[in-house]
Write a structure and sequence with these properties.
The complex is a heterodimer of chains A (about 110) and B (about 110). With about 110 residues, chain A is mostly beta strands. Chain A is built from no helices and 12 strands. Chain B contains no helices and 11 strands. Chain B is globular, with a radius of gyration of 13 Å.
Amino acid sequence: AQTVTQSQPEMSVQEAETVTLSCTYDTSESDYYLFWYKQPPSRQMILVIRQEAYKQQNATENRFSVNFQKAAKSFSLKISDSQLGDAAMYFCAYRQGAQKLVFGQGTRLTINP
Amino acid sequence: ETGVTQSPTHLIKTRGQQVTLRCSSQSGHNTVSWYQQALGQGPQFIFQYYREEENGRGNFPPRFSGLQFPNYSSELNVNALELDDSALYLCASSLPDSYEQYFGPGTRLTVT
């Protein structure tokens, strides 16, 4: 079974600085998707960024980028120029095809002004 | 375009009771997935519905059941509630071959 592990329960960063959240996963499949979701106190899960496993190029969305290491089964999220609104729980997730999302335990990110 | 909505927002039930949670999918989305998120944990997949049929199920007992209606809205039913069923229940809708699931705001269920 696929598993997703986030080893950092909590992280904090100064406003305007850069922070990296870690994620590792386990799968025997070669074709899959990886995601980072943000869950603010409002509880609604918001997609931050996705990566298709067949793409070697790391995904980037404005201040958010990933470091995808397929052989190492590692998928970290880098947030540049951190803003107060980035404070939230961040979940790494795996999906194969149109099936279920498998989530990690989450990392609580605090932004210090 | 209307997003995913869920009702009710909060719910308090007693152990042994039954509960029904509702989800309206995003316009045009015919696939609905349900997740259970215990406090401090990541969401766990309960089941998925596609065109009114169950299309995948996670490691949840049969007392967790669901329905999907012709308009693609969905219900999650939980019988014989247990204290451990206390959680945030998330609904997500998607198109069948789309990578992205759109989540609703969730229903917070408390079992006492």
